[in-house]
């Protein structure tokens, strides 16, 4: 066979070219090796352009996760799915959203909290600690939990919040960030609101990151570039909007705005990270008028939390360099504890261990610590109780149950004693996924889209069930509400019946 014919075949069908190359007696070994490597690369080019092969980095930043997903094809599939849904009669609007009048701006608010486990209005549950106070099925069928629905979804790393029978998330759809409301039982899209914004990041991935927050019929959604959009939860109508980065004179983070908005009484608190006293900012939750701003910290990727520590209600924040408690009325600093990590990459949510102790964790070799907050009259201080490298939450967060902390130490599930930091066990490779706690068990969503049920016991790693749920790299947090387990990644979303 002539060299030119061999070259033509190799370019057209690289695998055949590799076979033919190694049958040529006159070609030297290193020439065959280099030629084979070139044809392997050419094969990936063919697969990418002809079949939509994509190679995304996993949580290590080194190993690829391959999938066949061409962006244009995915958007067409998504748009076709939503068009088909529009042809079906919409579900009835929730009665509370239609019949309950919104209180006047200055009227006292007296709204009962949702029944335990029914709604999930905040990132990682009602207390933002990954605990869902609801009963779940703890004996899963071998084929997995019953599937309610599965469909395409826009890109990004946000989770869901659930209220009044609807699931809300934020997605990347072409060059727009889109907040979407879905009917929880059916997955049907009820409304969307979008704006032109396209955050791109080569290593982490594209799209919005921050999970929206639901409060009193309103949805507070923060885009990756700092657009804070406040929408009517029933209709999706825009109520007000702010550019929190522009307001603070701050630059965006390398991996984008990721902290969920926090409702504190009549304010919504966000973390723009401005250096001119605008690192933490509060707006009137009804009008968007600025209320207060504080500190000069560069911010990180964890969401602020409203907690009570050492008898004081406060806003708990983990910035790029420290953990701190802030006055919930004006954002002034109550206490802080140094928490300096690689490039300021603090992602994991802190955990309140007891009335005056807080658990912190970070990846990139940093580790974990428990900090005790001490009150002396009106002043506060913080001191370390223990620290080690046995729980390194990279971009996941741990949960607490009966004095033990469960979480992904890098890519492996582990359990440590909250009082001492001693490792109780380590086992179960779920990649850089996420987990939540419910009914004495851990629901683990693995990096490749698998769902696992693990008993929350310090005795040993006991995996009770495992099944594939969705396809592709999955870094988004799962959510439980009203007996439904919601999962998503940048390509698809699914709902499973998890009620007992």
Task: Describe the protein.
- The protein has 500 residues and is mainly β.
- Among the domains are: 3-51, no CATH class; 332-394 and 397-430, Beta Barrel (Thrombin, subunit H), CATH 2.40.10.480.
- The chain is 14% helix and 38% strand.
- A 4-stranded antiparallel sheet has the order 3-34-33-32.
- Strand 29 (441-445) and strand 30 (450-455) form a beta hairpin.
Question: Which structural traits does this protein have?
Answer:
500 residues; mainly beta; four-stranded antiparallel β-sheet; 14% helix; globular
Compact overview of the structure:
The chain is 14% helix and 38% strand. The chain is mainly β and 500 residues long. It has a 4-stranded antiparallel beta sheet.
- Shape by Cα distribution: globular
User: What value does the Rg take, in angstroms?
Assistant: 24 Å
Fold-level CATH name of the domain at 332-394 and 397-430: Thrombin, subunit H
User: How much strand content do the residues show?
Assistant: 35-45%
Share of helical residues: 10-25%
Q: Secondary structure elements and their pairing?
A:
Elements: H1 3-12, H2 14-23, H3 29-51, E1 53-57, E2 64-68, H4 71-86, H5 95-99, E3 147-152, E4 161-163, E5 166-173, E6 176-183, E7 189-196, E8 213-215, E9 218-222, E10 227-232, E11 238-243, H6 244-248, E12 262-264, E13 267-270, E14 280-284, E15 290-294, E16 305-309, E17 312-318, E18 322-327, E19 333-338, E20 351-354, E21 357-362, E22 367-376, E23 379-388, E24 399-401, E25 404-409, E26 412-417, E27 423-429, E28 434-438, E29 441-445, E30 450-455, E31 463-468, E32 479-481, E33 484-488, E34 492-497
Antiparallel strand pairs: 1-2, 3-34, 4-5, 5-6, 6-7, 8-9, 9-10, 10-11, 12-13, 13-14, 14-15, 16-17, 17-18, 18-19, 20-21, 21-22, 22-23, 24-25, 25-26, 26-27, 28-29, 29-30, 30-31, 32-33, 33-34
Helix pairs in contact: 1-2, 2-3
């Amino acid at each position: 066979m002539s060299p030119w014919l061999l070259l033509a075949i190799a370019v057209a069908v690289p695998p055949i070219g590799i076979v033919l190359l190694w049958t040529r007696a006159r070609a030297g070994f290193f020439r065959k090796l280099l030629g084979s490597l070139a044809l392997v690369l050419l094969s990936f080019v063919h697969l990418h352009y002809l079949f939509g092969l994509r190679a995304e980095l996993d949580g290590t930043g080194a190993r690829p996760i391959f999938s066949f997903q061409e962006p244009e094809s995915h958007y067409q599939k998504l748009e076709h799915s939503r068009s088909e849904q529009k042809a079906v009669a919409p579900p009835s609007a929730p009665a509370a959203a239609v019949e309950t009048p919104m209180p006047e701006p200055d009227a006292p608010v007296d709204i009962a909290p949702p029944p335990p486990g029914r709604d999930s209005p905040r990132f990682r549950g009602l207390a933002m600690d990954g605990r869902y106070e609801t009963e779940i099925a703890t004996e899963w069928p071998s084929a997995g939990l019953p599937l309610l629905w599965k469909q395409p979804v826009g890109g990004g790393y946000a989770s869901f919040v659930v209220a009044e029978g609807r699931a809300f998330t934020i997605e990347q759809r072409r060059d727009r960030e889109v907040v979407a409301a879905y009917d929880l039982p059916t997955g049907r899209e009820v409304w969307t609101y979008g704006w032109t914004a396209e955050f791109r990041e080569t290593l982490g991935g594209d799209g919005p990151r921050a999970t929206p927050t639901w409060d009193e019929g309103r949805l507070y959604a923060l885009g990756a570039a700092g657009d804070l959009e406040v929408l009517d939860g029933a209709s999706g109508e825009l109520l007000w909007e702010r550019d929190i980065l522009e307001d603070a004179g701050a630059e965006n983070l390398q991996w984008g705005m990721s902290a969920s908005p926090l409702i504190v009484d009549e304010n919504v608190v966000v973390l723009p990270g401005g250096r001119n006293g605008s690192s933490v900012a509060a707006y009137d939750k009804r009008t968007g008028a600025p209320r207060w701003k504080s500190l000069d910290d560069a911010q990180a990727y964890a969401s602020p939390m409203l907690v009570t520590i050492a008898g004081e209600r406060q806003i708990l924040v983990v910035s790029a360099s420290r953990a701190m408690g802030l006055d919930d009325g004006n954002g002034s600093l109550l206490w802080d504890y140094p928490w300096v990590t690689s490039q300021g990459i603090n992602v994991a949510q802190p955990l309140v261990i007891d009335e005056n102790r807080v658990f912190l964790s970070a990846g990139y070799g940093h580790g974990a610590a428990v900090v005790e907050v001490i009150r002396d009259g009106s002043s506060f201080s913080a001191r370390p109780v223990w620290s080690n490298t046995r729980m390194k939450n990279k971009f996941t967060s741990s949960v607490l149950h009966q004095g033990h902390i469960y979480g992904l130490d890098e890519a492996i599930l582990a359990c440590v004693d909250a009082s001492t930091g001693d490792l109780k066990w380590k086992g179960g490779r779920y990649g850089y996924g996420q987990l939540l706690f419910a009914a004495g068990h851990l629901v683990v969503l693995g990096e490749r889209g698998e769902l696992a049920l693990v008993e929350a016991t310090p005795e040993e790693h006991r995996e009770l069930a495992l099944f594939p749920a969705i396809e592709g790299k999955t870094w988004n947090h799962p959510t439980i509400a009203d007996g439904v387990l919601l999962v998503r990644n940048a390509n698809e979303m699914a709902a499973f019946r998890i009620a007992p």
